[in-house]
Amino acid sequence: MSVELQERTEGTAVEGEALTDGFHLLIDALKMNDLNTIYGVPGIPITDFGRLAQANGIRVLSFRHEQHAGNAAAVAGYLTKKPGVCLTVSAPGFLNGLTALANATTNCFPMILLSGSSEREIVDLQQGDYEEMDQLAIAKPLCKAAFRVLHAEDIGIAVARAIRAAVSGRPGGVYLDLPAALFGQTMNAVAGAQSLVKVIDPAPRQLPGPEAVDRALNVLKSARKPLIILGKGAAYVQEDETIKKFVETSGIPFLPMSMAKGLLPDSHPQCAAAARSLVLKEADVVVMLGARLNWLLSHGKGKSWGEPGSKKFIQLDIEPQEMDSNVEIAAPLVGDLGSSLQLMLQGMDNSWKQPPVAWLDTVYAKRDANVAKLTQRVGADTTPMDFSTALGALREIIADRPDAMLVNEGANTLDFARSIINMSEPRKRIDVGTWGIMGIGMGAAVAAAVETGNQVLAVEGDSAFGFSGMEIETICRYNLPVCIVIFNNNGIYRGTDENPTGGEDVAPTVFVKDSRYELMMQAFGGEGIYATSRDELTKAVVNAMDSGKPTLVNAIIDENAGTESGRIGNLNPQSVVKK
Fold first, then answer.
1. Which of 79, 208, 233, 263 is buried deepest, with most CB atoms within 10 A?
2. Secondary-structure class of domain 379-570 per CATH
């Protein structure tokens, strides 16, 4: 051990001098910046840090797996606009948390992953330390920024840099590497307090240029069939009134992406969600608000978008490199969404003309016809239940409880729920997001309950639930108001596939028939209910939402009801070679 490191570890205090250490400096740095909740899993070398953080007033929620703690931190960041904090052990624990960190970065959620690690001198010489790994090098390609802290006096500035990196510009994930010896380093308490940093204006506004605003308005004025697409980025910024004013002043139909549902109510007269195919194909000018032309929108091209070159795009985004990512953007407007929309509203004076009546009539006639068909389908009471029957029951429950948080994942369970369950308030729907990965459900449910205090309804496919199901113990341990509904159709997509060889092994997509998931919840002290009909499902969920008790409802769905890969079967190639 070097002399310098030994002094830092053991302290060189004069008699009577007050000392602090790495543990307390990190805690104080987080608290100074109003980061008062940590999601994580305890263990070497951060066990005592969790204990001390709790003792000093930080809420520390301990999970059964780091990935789900990370997913919770990411969702916390989305809901609060502050970095959600995840704490993991070294190496394998870090790698588990890294999946969530990468997902947070892809989804533009602010998050900080704190991980204990081995000492540099051991890692660099590859001497075989306990859980040795060069974590910083591994994290860098998968997050927005990554830093290592070697000295206690640098903890304050490191936390400040992590916060600013996580929330400024396009938000994302940040990694802080914390070698074990850092926690035990000591320094003068007064000097330590002076080394901490309170971050000022971590996400400053970025105004677009006047010429960019004028260009966007001119393109919009030329539209005969305009469309607005709202992405989850529009929900994240919490500029709800400005967005509402822009949409209503423009008179343009809007299409919400799944996590933007409720930014304006799905019942809003300009909502075109039920006419999605028509508006995407027929629109001539498309305004993108916090949305990206990625795979969720077929990259802005292909059959779903009509004839090539038939559209002009106006894109409002804080990230310049997002422009022209898939198709030409006729009017890029780079800046924070609130400022950009306010400037556009200033240019939409009293002479602003509403879209042509013929376009509006076409869109809303198609929407109303599709809504009528959907209403009839979800109102049916089939036995056994199919996805429409079960989601129709949940649709009514959510309509009566607009403050409730809806967490949703699965294949068919997710895809059908997007169109069936309406949302009326912003940031109340959390799903798999941009990557479309399974396993976010229980972590998201925990964060939704902790950060909002509201009742949470987590609607899970049986396959999706399997990724994070053990976290129901976490939900019960903290007595969180979470009701989980598992759509149980005995497998991935459906439970009817067969082994083509006729062997003893079941098909790769098939689970144990009639699994009793509700008994798992009962084992941890929660409410577990088995529901085979619409009435049983409704009664169970209403009681759970009213009581606030941790509840799991095992909803039995017809195993024939699912479709391959939900509604994105085109992304699942199938072999055409027969042997």
1. 263
2. alpha beta
Sign of CA dihedral 21, 22, 25, 27: negative
How far is residue 3 from each of residues 8, 11, 94, 148, 163, measured CA to CA in Å?
Answer: 9, 11, 30, 21, 32
Instruction: Count CB neighbours of 278 within 10 A.
Output: 18
Q: Tell me the helices (H) and strands (E) count for the chain, helix number first.
A: 23, 19
**Residues 291/301, Cβ–Cβ less than 8 Å:** no
Q: In this structure, which topology does domain 210-365 adopt according to CATH?
A: Rossmann fold (3.40.50)
CATH topology of domain 3-194: Rossmann fold (3.40.50)
Q: Is 273 helix (H, G, I), strand (E, B) or coil?
A: helix
Nearest CA among 26, 132, 125 for reference residue 85: 26
pLDDT at 1: 30
Cα 77 to Cα 256: distance, rounded to the nearest angstrom: 21
Evaluated on CA atoms 103, 109, 110, 111, the torsion sign reads negative
Domain ranges of the chain: 3-194, 210-365, 379-570
CB burial readout 34-63, b (16+ within 10 A) else e: ebebbbbbbbebbeebbebbeeeebebbbb
Angstrom CA distances, 31 to 25, 69, 176, 564, stand at: 10, 20, 16, 47
Strands 84-88 and 37-40: parallel
> What span, in angstroms and rounded, lies between the C-alpha atoms of 290 and 312?
17
DSSP string, 328-354: --SEEEES-HHHHHHHHHHHS-TTPPP
Say how far apart CA 497 and CA 161 lie, in whole Å: 51
Report the range of poorest mean pLDDT among 53-57, 156-160, 346-350, 470-474.
346-350
pLDDT of residue 369: 97
What does the alpha-carbon distance between residue 231 and residue 569 come to, in Å, rounded to a whole number? 23
The Cα 270–Cα 251 span in angstroms is: 7
More confident of the two residues 541 and 572: 541
CA diameter of the chain: 85
- At 29, the amino acid letter reads A
E strands along 405-463, which residues? 405-409, 429-430, 456-461
* Digit-coded pLDDT (tens) for 296-350: 999 999 999 999 989 999 999 999 999 999 999 999 999 999 999 999 999 998 8
Structure confidence at residue 130 (pLDDT): 83
Same fold, 3-194 and 210-365: yes
